[in-house]
Amino acid sequence: LEGQNIFNSSNTERLVASYALARLLAKSNSGVDQNDAISLFTQAQALPLLHIDSLWHASEILTSQGDNKKTRDFVEKILRDPAAAPIDQARALYEMAQSFLREPSSENNQKAKDLLLAIKQKYPATEYGTASNYYLGQMALGNSGNISGNNTNSSTSNTTSVVGSEAAFGSSTGNNAAGNYGSMSNGALGAPGSAAEAEALAYFSDYLKGSVNGRFSSDVADKLMAMNTRGAALTPADLDRIGLVYYRKNNYSKALDA
Q1: Burial (CB count within 10 angstroms: exposed 0-12, middle 13-18, buried 19+), residue 108
Q2: 14-59 pLDDT, tens per residue?
Q3: Which of 248, 254, 253, 178 is nearest to 223 (CA)?
Q4: How far apart are CA 122 and CA 214, in angstroms?
Q5: CA-closest candidate to residue 96, choices 76, 82, 126, 66
Q6: I need a surface site. Which of 52, 61, 83, 112 has the fewest CB within 10 A?
Q7: Which residue, 72, 99, 90, is CA-closest to 131?
Q8: Element (DSSP H or E) covering residue 94
Q9: C-alpha torsion angle, residues 80, 84, 72, 36 (rounded to 10)
Q10: pTM of the model
């Protein structure tokens, strides 16, 4: 019986070795190496200690390859795993939303919105909850037809370094899903006083409540100030946070205006 145990010493060493080799291959620019890494991560996930990490690393490679459907398949496994930590669940929902935003359509945009709202409701205090507010605000303004789906990627260092740049979790492949929805010009604010603008204002305000140092904080502050000049109902607390954003970005003139 001991020899049939998949977690015996020999098999554990093999799975650990598969994981280590996969981490090395994942750094390669070769598609063949990356696909081999995915296969090895798929094997390594059989070891409980490496299960979640293996799923993440495989999904990161698939994201870098532009295979959103397979990315969702791996992320779905994390969502279904009762052993996944809350932060992994939040990130999985966020990754799923981003995968739909990378394939824009009315149906996929709605799926992404539902997922972002779920993150906001279930994990509001996480960096993913904060970043969700930004995308929900962008999408609210997009309801007026004023959104630019600019699918761009930016790099970051690793899967856990998100402090100060909420949900900017990178991968070992250098892909960053947080920037995939694109941004709008400050003029794309919809009709003054419209329901879409009011909805966006609420999301952007919630964003700054969670992060005045985040990667989107300057963009959010600019949009809120543009709304303010159009008569939007910003609170004194909103203006204080906007001023703090500009102050920390060394934009003292804008900080004084706020």
Answers
A1: middle
A2: 999 999 999 999 999 999 999 999 999 999 999 999 999 999 999 9
A3: 254
A4: 20
A5: 76
A6: 83
A7: 90
A8: helix 86-101
A9: -120
A10: 0.79
